[in-house]
Amino acid sequence: MERSLFIRTVMLTLLFTVSFFSRGETTLRLAYAENSQPVKDALHFFGQQVEEKTGGEIKVAYFPDGQLGGERELVELIQANAVDITKVSSGLMESFSPLYGIFSLPYLFSNADEYYKVMDNPKIMDPVYQSTAAQGFIGIGWYDSGARNFYMSKSPIKSIEDLRGKKIRVMQSDTSIQTLKLLGASPIAMSQAEVYTSLQQGILDGAENNEFALTIARHGEVARYYTYDMHTRIPDVLLMSTATLAKLTPEQRTIVKDAIRASIEFEKAAWDKEIEKTKQAAVKDFNVEFFEIDKKPFQDAVQPIYDNLKNKPQLYKLYQQIQSAKH
Questions:
Q1: Which H/E stretch holds residue 198?
Q2: CB burial readout 209-240, b (16+ within 10 A) else e
Q3: In 10 A of CB 290, how many CB atoms?
Q4: pTM for the full predicted model
Q5: What does each C-alpha distance from 20 to 30, 36, 217, 278 come to in angstroms?
Q6: DSSP state of 160
């Protein structure tokens, strides 16, 4: 379906589905694509918190699992005021604001503690969140999406040489594409929905994602060699329409902000437990094998990305802030 027609169709559907800002009640339309269980649970926890703290004055209507389209369509629906809140990968957000590209830099974080210090730092994150305000939406929070690693269909990645010439699916991110090229692979940008079939048919040799891709998307059926190189920690980002935000009272805005903060902590606590369950399921159901490797050759190979960062003053300044904050 043509994209503009798709958006018009969705808007009409929503008009008949949800009464928004009527009779003294506010209904926030929250849509998301396919996600891991911790993220789904955190989004619903957010809604519960908002409804409870406002005494039912604000309600949240959910449109889950891609009912209204993929992540790019959901951002466009926010811009069209057809959706109030959504959650997307910051990898996608790079095409809306170059500042989000900072999170696609390879091996930026050594561990989860460094990552959390940066993501929970408003001095770093607020300018990133506000960078899309002129486009009709801003970031209001983030969720952990783990570390992205390589998984392959025919043989594991045990060294950087094993990546040479391999066709690997990446998100539509210039930085991710450049990273894969520097690692010697052949990056192929495609939607997540196409990955399973492409792995099955040999169009792809592998992909990169967190462990949930093995079970939720069932990629473990067709790619059972998972290697921990942890090349990126790309957060999920919660987005909200600026028009919606403007219609909330100051007290309601505070409640929404507090509910987001509570849902972030909820998701963090759930993430590691679910990852461990997912790994066990991937081994049991699909015979997936997990591998640890020496990351140094990978880190050395992508150094040109950092050498060129000084040519991008905004990103370089943000990079320096991150380096300071994470230590």
A1: helix 195-201
A2: bbbbbbbbbebbbbbbbbbebbbbbbbbbbbb
A3: 17
A4: 0.88
A5: 12, 28, 33, 38
A6: G
pLDDT digits (tens, 9 = 90+) for 100-111: 999 999 999 999
For 69, the token pair is 């389209």
Query: Which value, to the nearest 10 degrees, does the dihedral of the CA atoms of residues 131, 69, 90, 26 take?
Result: 50
Adjacency order of strands within the sheet including 225-232: 186-189, 167-170, 206-209, 148-152, 225-232, 289-292
Q: How many whole angstroms separate alpha carbon 157 and alpha carbon 225?
A: 8
Two structure tokens written together for 147: 């570390």
Q: Which two tokens stand for residue 20?
A: 């928004």
Coil/strand/helix, residue 209: strand
Mean pLDDT value of segment 66-89: 95
Predicted confidence (pLDDT) at residue 48 exceeds the cutoff of 80? yes
Q: Which residue has the tokens 């020496």?
A: 294
Asked if residue 155 has pLDDT above 60, the reply is yes
Paired with 40 in beta bridges are: none
Residue 206: strand, helix, or coil? strand
* CATH 3.40.190.170 residue window(s) in the chain: 25-144+233-274, 145-231+285-324
Contact 170, 188 (CB under 8 A): yes
Q: How confident is the model at residue 19 (pLDDT cuts 50, 70, 90)?
A: very low
What is the per-residue pLDDT across 201-245, written as a single tens digit (0 to 9) for each? 999 999 999 999 999 999 999 999 999 999 999 999 999 999 999
Collapsing DSSP to helix, strand or coil, 290 comes out as strand
The answer to whether 145 touches 212, Cβ cutoff 8 Å, is no
- Give CA–CA dist 90/98, Å, rounded: 10
Instruction: Assign domain 145-231+285-324 to a CATH class.
Output: alpha beta
Residue with tokens 């003294």: 24
**pLDDT attached to residue 14:** 54
Distance of CA 39 to the CA centre of its chain: 10
The CATH number of domain 25-144+233-274, selected from 3.10.450.50, 3.40.50.2300, 3.40.190.170, 3.40.50.2000: 3.40.190.170
